[in-house]
Known about the structure:
By secondary structure, the protein is mainly alpha-helical. It has a domain at about 95-170: GMP Synthetase, Chain A, domain 3 (2-Layer Sandwich). The protein has helices at about 1-25, 30-55, 60-105, 140-150, 175-180; strands at about 115-120, 130-135, 160-165. The chain has a three-stranded mixed β-sheet with strand order 1-2-3, covered by helices on one side. The longest helix has about 50 residues, at about 60-105. The termini are far apart.
Amino acid sequence: MRTEIYQWMKNLAFFHVLTTAVLHILPDKRYEQYIRLFMGLLLALMICTPVFALVGKSSELLNGFQKYYGEEEQARMENEAEGIRKTFLREAYKKELEKQIRRLLSDAGIFSEEISGVAAEITAEKKLLVKINLKAAITESQKEAVKNGLERICGLEETQYQILDSGNGMEGVGNPVASGNSSSGGGTSGIPENK
Length: 195
């Protein structure tokens, strides 16, 4: 009986040292409360083990704990792996789609110096949105070729992409639309001129 008590006390001391070490090597302190909770539950189990040993139920309790902990850990790891896989596939899909769109633009006669950006975004509703920004204006035939290619090659619907060029909505600093008009005062800024 004395050796069992001595072994139990050694286990408690080792557990305390292990808990302290784990808490000190945590890379991020926001997980500390979860580690403390988990270690507290294990400590309660270790303290109760001699009582259950007297009753004869300690092996059943430990086996049940190991079984449920193993199942929970396996489920957590599977969920984490699934999330990583989905993120990887989403990013790979976006890169491939951007590559296809750049090739499609090149085939339509729109070259890389005319493209300011191609961005594919997958929203929270798992809807794909593509935005193509062009530096220069393009012809209607080029725009139709790009639209047909986006629908035929990339499988995008008309609501899933947007083509912006300098002729349809990308006003800059020097354009009259961005500067205001002269009818709102005397100057283009809307502030009356002092004469």
